Amino acid sequence: MTIDFQKVPTPCYVVDEELIKRNLEILRSVQDRTGCSILLALKGFSMHALFPLIGEYLKGITSSSLFEARLGFEKMGKEVHAYAPAFVEEDFDELLGYVDHLVFNSFAQWTKYKEKVNSLTDKKVECGIRVNPQYSEIATPIYNPCYINSRLGVTLENFREDLLDGLDGLHFHTLCEQNSDTLERTIQVVDEKFGPYLKNMKWLNFGGGHHITRDDYDVEALVRSIEFMRDKYDLQIYLEPGEAIALNTGYLVGSVLDIVENGMEIAIMDTSAACHMPDVLEMPYRPNIIGSGQPGEYAYTYRLGGNTCLAGDIIGDYSFKEPLKPGDKLVFCDMAHYTMVKNNMFNGVNLPSIALHSKERGLEILRTFGFEDYAGRLS
Ligand SMILES: *Cc1c(COP(=O)(O)O)cnc(C)c1O
């Protein structure tokens, strides 16, 4: 069943449940073939209305804060893992109530919290340390955890063999939207540098950034990488992708509010790059719009701008077969991940509603936002 975008009140994120299921099936097949555990990284996608569904396929979630851990615990109720650059002392006792795995970013953090973890009587929380293998193939520094002087993970030079007692696993996260050839090369480096310490570990977490559900992703090389580490050191392997779960599963529908002219035609939208799709500015990238072309490809070219006062709130330049006019709806593609988890109410611009489209129930608007949400986070 196709989605009738004309019926969607704008702005609105629309996630297609069938497309989520398609991704989850691919991920489940990797679990089934290798025995690995795949977790949803809430950082990339936290649409909790779908957590029960996601929990039918994946083993749980991973979080990087108290709130993410609690959301995963309450809304999915399967495994909850947590890693943070540093854990906040006031949050830690509550966090322990939610998690099964904790990954520390430094040996100082591990030393600081070790006693607390070990003194738990009602459950066992397995602990690991994040390492920085100082190998990555990411061109954008802001997304590169191995960039020079990175704060994320312990380098081999700073690794403390003397403090490993009580640790069950290692974790690395060095990929971003990458295929499995990068993973294969990364695994080699991790093995060379940290292999000696993996011998006594129970698990190894490969982090996120695996673009497993992308059309050209080489699942066979992923399976080989998992099997290699699994068998060489007798490890349980975890993967914690965010983006791969929600890749190409959702849209952001916006409407044209006005057309202005300044050297070219500029359409002002009721949605915003700065507020609703911040990665468009941060990465930066140009999202696809259904029925549009590159500038000049079709007869009518427009620059699309957001409805904030930020001069740079520009989504990109696009061409269309027909002229745009106020009221026209435009559908931005691949807007499920790193959008609703990152959006903001800068300039008092309201947030897009969140909708789900499913085969059984059609389009459902799950959440709308209003003045209370805006005022409620200020004082
Ligand atoms: C961001 C992040 C993830 C998820 O990354 P994706 O690119 O969304 O797959 C997983 N683990 C850690 C530690 C992260 O920082």
Automatic annotation (TrEMBL):
Residues 12-335 form the Orn/DAP/Arg decarboxylase 2 C-terminal domain. Its cofactor is pyridoxal 5'-phosphate. It comes from the Bacteria. Its EC number is 4.1.1.96. GO terms for biological process: lysine biosynthetic process via diaminopimelate; nor-spermidine biosynthetic process; spermidine biosynthetic process. The keyword Lyase applies. The keyword Plastid does not apply. Substrate binds at E243, D279. This is Carboxynorspermidine decarboxylase. It comes from Alkalibacter rhizosphaerae.
